[in-house]
Amino acid sequence: MISVLVADDQALVRSAVVDLVSHADGLDVVGQAGDGRRAVELARRLRPDVVLMDVRMPGMDGIAATREICDDPALADVRVLVLTTFEDDAYIVGALRAGASGFLGKGSDPDQIVAAVRAVRAGDALLSPTATRTLIDRYVRPTDTAPGETPAALAALTEREVEILTLVGRGLSNAQIAADLVISPHTAKTHVNRVMTKLHAHDRAQLVIAAYENGLVRAQGA
Fold first, then answer.
1. Where do the HTH luxR-type domain residues begin and end (predicted)?
2. Residue 222: its pLDDT value, please?
């Protein structure tokens, strides 16, 4: 059973999301919050598997709440899935940098929301390549790095790990990375986990950001 905490300041929206999640097989709503501060408090007390986090909330917003949750070592197993109306894509990049595992729009189909919760719980970053590149193209400014040169920020990575990070940045799953490099899926997953540890990344989504910011993956048209 996947435990879910729903955080949204709009009671009607929150109620609808709670109802949707509660009726999905294998999902259980363990708490509700109307603002970011309450979401953090409940996350620490309830330790849900996934927090469905709104962005714009009074007091502490969803990005700040996401950062507090993801920066807390005691909540290392808690995943945050941000809900957004896409009014401002900058919020999404901010959420990913704060440690969110992904995002989806509030207008998504019910099945998509349920699938997203399950995907995030399984350790996947809910980032479609098209949506991710659109956001990165607009808001992430890669560092200037000469061809073949490893950025200083990635000095702790081996050559293979830089290669792995590049593929993650391109939106490849572990299975796709394994096929591309002709290694086992288990080995691919091990490499990804090591990269996350070395870069202090809470989630795979942050590796995507790191790949773009360090010039391993170039924005379209760059």
1. 150-215
2. 46
